[in-house]
Design goal:
It is a single chain. The protein has 631 residues and is α/β, with parallel strands linked by helices. It folds into 2 domains: 3-340, Up-down Bundle (ABC transporter transmembrane region fold), CATH 1.20.1560; 362-597, P-loop containing nucleotide triphosphate hydrolases (Rossmann fold, 3-Layer(aba) Sandwich), CATH 3.40.50.300. Helices cover 64% and strands 9% of the residues. The protein has helices spanning 3-15, 26-36, 40-72, 77-125, 129-134, 137-179, 181-189, 191-226, 229-237, 241-293, 299-320, 322-340, 374-377, 380-383, 420-427, 450-456, 471-475, 484-493, 497-502, 520-534, 550-564, 599-605, 608-619, 624-630; strands at 362-370, 395-404, 409-414, 435-440, 443-444, 457-460, 538-542, 568-572, 584-589, 592-597. Strand 4 and strand 5 form a beta hairpin. The chain is elongated, with a radius of gyration of 35 Å.
């Protein structure tokens, strides 16, 4: 590696070095060893080849010097030819060695990336919903990308670099001292002039790069939010394109100015170091030539020393920044391990059970619940805060009890924020209760496996979330093995078959991010079709028809009535006309059940339900006669 390449490399390392100076932790090193263990044979071969490559790097200058000596001494032509052939063979062997070393490096590095990413992805999937409600998605994705790649460099770059540079440095010093210890010591005296500017200028560049990173992050955030369908709609509705453009241009201009400063700092730095190295070579030629003219040194030795000088400065400079590289890798590993060490709040017991066969009852027994504190479910670095709040959340459910017999439909109504959706999430075991119990067919959900609950309980949420995938892909989340005929049947039952059939690509139509290529009602009907395909024994509808128009709602209600037949259902609804036929209606306010009964019983009681019902019919413009008839 040339001095210029080393200079650029060190500049980059310094600019991207971590701010903190953390000590090496043996626990971290042991865990790194655990991830490296499956690749130990390839690592060993990689290190051996790196050492061989370092030896060859020193051998070539020595042979070049002998060629010069052979020429000056008028040796036989065969001697020069043999030396030239040997240099050529070494070059060919070194090239082949470089290919094999690169293959090993890539295999080890990419294998480590695969292992780390898979471990983090699988672990994150086991985290509770509370983790995702607090965590910035971009920060989490960064752990899977930037930090994993940073950790991988510890094996593919840093480890081999340190070993190869150490071997090269020792061999070069031994050979140079053997040729001329005076010239070698003089060359070493120039080393501080070479290394110290690298450290100082690198630290200066690091500050500039971090400032640029902050502005780039701000631009990325603005683009991510504004380029999504909801964000773009919001900007257009409030007429802010001009202001948005000005804000973005200001940030982009700042990044441009920083880019110019960065380019100049880098160029001045590399030019200075290149000049120092050129002066060092001049010193070698001057002093070496002086000794050669006095007969104290061969001409070939002068050439060898000048060539070896590059082999000396390059590894010395690289080793001077080795600590930065190692620390960067260690920080990346620790950031990855930080996520892996965050224990999921909800896990399966070793003897987790399945839900008993047959229709399923649902029971909440004196359930109390508060959302978990931030320090139990998240990381400060994933939320961009200094410290996480360790205080527990306020209790949102206060002794809730309900019982749904197999096949019954239980409706939950009440004001927004009363705790209705929280109850639905507890039944699905997205959270665990603080006290009391949630049971399916008499079995506490904490004693059931996650797979058993997922197979038993199906939910349609209010937002009707869809992935950026085809209609087929979104439906097959419920049943991956479902045939096209079964998909079409589910779409027909959700009153969406005609629409999908009219699309040019049919089931292969991509719905877009969050399904925004479909209307709100169409998205919701697609999620209902997904539920119908799953055919769960317990169905939870959390405002499942909220975004439908009257015609679509009537059609979907008919489909849901068919889907709910023989199944236990929990229906959360603000539109009270949709739950008149429920077997029982629970009115939830402030996390408590304040009323319980059928539609007629609750109207007759003239309580909170009657108030909600009367207010809704007045808002809908219903006449008094209809209300009286409903009563």
């Amino acid at each position: 590696m040339s001095i210029e390449s080393v200079a650029w490399n060190q500049m980059y390392r310094r600019a991207n070095a971590p701010d903190e100076r953390r000590p090496f932790r043996m626990a971290t090193l042991r865990r790194i060893g655990g991830f490296a263990r499956p690749h130990k044979r390839m690592l060993a071969g990689f290190l051996v080849l790196s050492v061989v490559s370092a030896i060859l790097a020193v051998a070539t200058p020595v042979l070049a010097g002998r060629v010069v000596d052979a020429i000056t001494e008028s040796a036989a032509p065969e001697v020069v030819v043999r030396l030239a052939l040997l240099i050529g063979l070494i070059a060919v062997f070194d090239a082949a060695l470089g290919l094999v070393t690169r293959w090993l490096s890539a295999s080890i590095g990419e294998g480590l990336i695969l292992d780390l990413r898979t471990a983090v992805f699988d672990h994150v999937q086991r985290m509770p919903i509370a983790f995702f409600t607090r965590t910035r998605t971009g920060a989490l994705v960064s752990r899977l990308n930037n930090d994993v790649i940073g950790a991988q460099r510890a094996f593919s770059d840093t480890l081999s670099g340190v070993v190869a540079n150490l071997v090269t440095l020792v061999l070069t010093l031994v050979v140079m001292l053997g040729i001329s210890w005076q010239i070698t010591l003089l060359a070493l005296l120039l080393l501080p002039v070479f290394v110290l500017p690298a450290r100082r200028m690198g630290n200066r560049l690091a500050g500039i790069q971090r400032e640029a990173a902050d502005h780039n992050a701000a631009m990325s955030t603005q683009m991510t939010e504004r380029f999504s369908a909801p964000g773009a709609t919001l900007v257009k509705l409030f007429g802010r394109p001009g202001q948005e453009s000005a804000e973005f241009a200001a940030r982009a201009s700042r990044v441009r100015d920083i880019g110019v400063r960065t380019a100049m700092v880098q160029t001045v730095f590399v030019t200075s170091l290149t000049l120092v190295s050129a002066l060092a070579v001049a010193v070698v030629y001057g002093l070496g030539g002086f000794y050669a003219l006095r007969g104290q040194l061969d001409a070939g030795s002068v050439v060898a020393l000048s060539l070896l000088l590059t082999r000396l400065y390059a590894p010395l400079t690289a080793l001077a920044s080795a600590r930065v590289e190692v620390m960067s890798a260690m920080v990346s590993f620790e950031r990855v391990f930080e996520v892996l060490d965050l224990n999921p709040l909800i896990t399966d017991k070793p003897d987790a059970r399945k839900v008993p066969v047959g229709p399923v009852s649902v029971e909440l027994d004196n359930v109390r619940f508060a959302y978990p504190a931030a320090d139990k479910v998240s990381l400060a670095s994933l939320e961009e805060v200094a410290t996480l709040d360790s205080r527990g959340g306020d209790e949102v459910l206060h002794g809730i009890s309900l019982h749904a017999e197999p096949g019954q439909v239980i409706a939950l109504v009440g004001s927004s924020g009363a705790g209705k959706s929280t109850i639905a999430q507890l039944i699905s075991r997205l959270y665990d209760v603080d006290s009391g119990a949630v049971r399916l067919s008499g079995v506490d959900v904490r004693d059931l496996s996650a797979q058993a609950i997922q197979e038993t309980v199906g939910m349609v949420t209010q937002d009707g979330h869809l992935f950026h995938d085809t209609i087929r892909g979104n439906l097959q989340l419920a049943r991956p093995e479902a045939t096209d005929a079964e998909l079409w049947e589910a779409l027909e039952r959700a009153r969406l078959g005609d629409l999908v059939a009219s699309l040019p690509d049919g089931l292969a139509t991509v719905v877009g991010e969050r399904g925004y290529r479909l209307s709100g009602g169409e998205r919701q009907r697609l999620t209902i079709a997904r539920l119908l395909l799953k055919q769960p024994r317990v169905v939870i509808l959390d405002e499942a028809t909220a975004s439908l128009d009257s015609t679509s709602e009537a059609a979907v209600q008919e489909a849901l009535s068919e889907a709910l037949a023989g199944r236990t259902a929990l229906v959360i609804a603000h539109r009270l006309s949709t739950i008149r036929a429920a077997d029982a209606i629970l009115v939830i306010e402030d996390g408590r059940v304040i009323e319980n009964g059928t539609h007629s019983e609750l109207l007759a009681a003239r309580g909170r339900y009657e108030q909600l019902y009367r207010t809704q019919f007045q808002e809908d413009g219903a006449n008094g006669a209809e209300f009286v008839n409903a009563s």
